[in-house]
Structure formats: structure tokens, C-alpha cells
Specification:
Strand order of the largest sheet: 3-4-9-5-6-7-8
Distance between the termini: 42 Å
Structural class: alpha+beta
Number of strands: 9
Shape: elongated
Order of helices and strands: HHHHEHHHHHEHHEEEEEEEH
Helix content: 55-70%
Oligomer: single chain
Number of helices: 12
Radius of gyration: 25 Å
């Protein structure tokens, strides 16, 4: 009992220190603490280095490699950029050593059956959060994108790592982490991504890993994982669709400029790569700061004049052919209202 109190209090103290001394904590304190716990448990339990379930190791590697392949193929659609990271050895040391240390710390805490895995996972999540970035974000939109691309994957991955540590081995968590991070330091270029893609791909990968290993652990009970796999496939297809990797793409209407044809909250499905645009067609096009859905009222050479059905005047700009994203096909009423409310909330400004 005294040992548990010491562990929890020391971890809480580390979290508080984490608020002010993030780099120092990650580089030195966590590895040192993990080493102390490792030695302590090795002397007491003797089995900390025992590798259980070795025959599942290729599966975890295969899953990681498949998602890495998916990650780099995104560049075929969105392009690539030079890898900004330098000093490869320093970056690896700064990233990999804390990673391994945290997983050893998780293993050591879970190794004591008196500790609650849920509490341990929450403590590690709070330990890994980058509070410096979190507290320097002022806009609601920045907080939202940070939460979706960083915080949610961190929470889900930690619960997955705890599950793997309990039922399989902590090495699985380390390998999943290392394969994701090492590739960033060894390639000269990276695909261009956004917060939505980062968050969604992380969610899919974590869910797939959890379902596979839950099925392996419970296979004696003949668990039906078909619904779970079907859900993941649907999420993957939906993600690819919203990223514009199909012939058709979707956009949410955020104003009533096209009322009554279209109204706020409708989801418009439009066809990309169109060849001909005619008067009275509804087109989706880009301006300097936003995407607009309006009707073509006149064609002038290779440009078009547009107008919202609910507006009194023609738009005060010409739309070039290169700015047209697609041609309206049909709309889904009201399904985009949650996105409208979220956009209005995020664009109000402060925190």
C-alpha cells in the first residue's frame, strides 16, 4: 500500500512539474524513474524481461507498416514536402528514450496487481500531454484542431497500450510507437497532411489494433468481430470520401445565400474534374479565403459570373475555370447542421 501511494504521488508531482519543465522532465526525469521501477520490479518479480506471445509480434509490425504505407501514399494526392527535421541522432534520442521509458513505467505500474489500470492510464496521459502547446493556443479553432489531432489519439493510444501491456506484452506498445516515429527521422520527404487526416488515421489504426488483439485474446469465446471491422471499413471509406479521393466530394452549406435551392446545414455532393460549365449550373469554387456554392449567371470567355439565388446582386468577382472545384449534383437536407453549429462556435474567436 505504501508503495502504491508513493507511485501515485510521485507521478502526480511529475505531472505538476510537467506544466513548467516539459523538456527537462521528458529527457531526464521519466527515463530515470522508469529505470528505478525497472530495477525494483526485476529484483522482486524476475519476470519483467520475459517476452510473452512472441508469435503475434509480426502482426503488430504488419499493421504498422500498412498504415505507414497508407500515410506515404497520401502524398500522391496532396503532394510531398521536405522533412524539416535535422540532427537525426538527437531527435531519436529525445523521442525514443522517453517513449521506451514511459512504456516500461506503464509495465512496472501494471505489474503490481494492486494498481488500477484505468488510473495508471490516466496518469500517463496527463504525463504525456504537451501543456506548453495547449496553454499557448488562444483561438477556439486552434484548440479544436489540437484536441482532434493530438489529444484524442493520445488518449485512445494509451488505453490501447495498457490493454496490450496487460494481455500481451509491453514490447508491442514500444514497437507500435517506434515504427511510427522512426520513419519521420529517416526519410528526406513527408506527405502533406492536415489535422483531420492525422486524427482520423490515428483513430482507425488504434481501433483496428484493438479489435484484432481483442479478438485474439477472446478467440476461445468465438467473438464475432465482423460488425467492428465493417464499422472501420465504413470510417475509412468516409474518410477517403471527405478527403476528396473519389470522383465525388461533399461540402456543407454555411449560409442561406442559395435559399431556397440550398439552405444552411445542407450537404452538397458535387462532381469533380468537370469539362463543361453552362449558365444556370450550380458550381463549387474557391476564392482567396473560402469555398463558395453559387449559380452561374453568365460566361465571359474562360471566366464566369456567379450569384446566390437568395442574393440581390451578382458576385463582385469573376470565377476562373481553374478555381472551379466541381459541379453540383444533389444535396442532403439538414445533415450538415452539426458542422454549421461547430463552425459558428469555433469562429467566435477567443477561448
Amino acid at each position: 500500500m505504501k508503495k502504491n501511494i508513493f507511485i501515485y504521488l510521485s507521478t502526480i508531482i511529475l505531472i505538476l512539474l510537467h506544466l513548467f519543465y516539459y523538456s527537462f522532465l521528458i529527457k531526464y526525469i521519466i527515463p530515470l524513474l522508469a529505470l528505478i521501477y525497472l530495477i525494483y520490479n526485476y529484483l522482486n518479480y524476475k519476470n519483467i524481461m520475459t517476452f510473452k506471445n512472441k508469435y503475434y509480434l509480426p502482426l503488430i509490425i504488419l499493421i504498422s507498416l500498412l498504415f505507414l504505407n497508407f500515410y506515404f501514399e497520401i502524398g500522391l494526392f496532396y503532394g510531398y514536402t521536405l522533412n524539416p527535421l535535422k540532427h537525426i541522432l538527437t531527435n531519436i534520442i529525445d523521442s525514443i528514450i522517453p517513449l521506451i521509458s514511459i512504456e516500461l513505467l506503464r509495465h512496472n505500474l501494471i505489474n503490481d496487481k494492486k494498481n488500477k489500470p484505468f488510473i495508471i492510464t490516466l496518469l500517463i496521459i496527463f504525463l504525456e500531454l504537451n501543456y506548453h502547446t495547449l496553454f499557448t493556443l488562444n483561438l477556439r479553432r486552434d484548440l479544436y484542431t489540437y484536441f482532434c489531432s493530438e489529444v484524442i489519439p493520445l488518449i485512445l493510444s494509451n488505453f490501447l497500450f495498457t490493454y496490450l501491456t496487460i494481455h500481451f506484452h509491453y514490447t508491442y506498445s514500444i514497437i507500435l510507437n517506434i515504427l511510427d516515429k522512426l520513419i519521420i527521422y529517416f526519410v528526406p520527404f513527408l506527405p502533406k497532411t492536415n489535422w483531420y487526416l492525422i486524427g482520423t488515421s490515428s483513430l482507425i489504426k488504434i481501433s483496428l489494433c484493438f479489435i484484432i488483439f481483442q479478438y485474439i485474446f477472446n478467440k476461445k469465446h468465438k467473438v464475432n468481430i465482423f460488425p467492428s471491422f465493417l464499422t472501420i471499413i465504413m470510417v475509412i471509406l468516409l474518410t477517403l470520401f471527405t478527403l476528396g479521393m473519389f470522383k465525388y466530394e461533399a461540402i456543407v452549406i454555411l449560409s442561406n445565400s442559395m435559399y431556397p435551392t440550398l439552405q444552411k446545414g445542407d450537404i452538397v455532393i458535387y462532381e469533380k474534374d468537370i469539362q463543361n460549365v453552362h449558365e444556370k449550373d450550380i458550381i463549387v469554387f474557391e476564392t482567396k479565403d473560402k469555398t463558395i456554392v453559387h449559380r452561374v449567371v453568365k460566361k465571359i470567355n474562360n471566366s464566369y459570373l456567379t450569384k446566390g439565388d437568395n442574393n440581390n446582386v451578382i458576385d463582385n468577382y469573376k470565377v476562373d475555370k481553374k478555381d472551379i472545384k466541381g459541379l453540383y449534383k444533389f444535396s442532403l437536407k439538414y445533415l450538415g447542421l452539426p458542422a454549421v453549429y461547430l463552425d459558428e462556435f469555433l469562429n467566435k474567436g477567443g477561448t
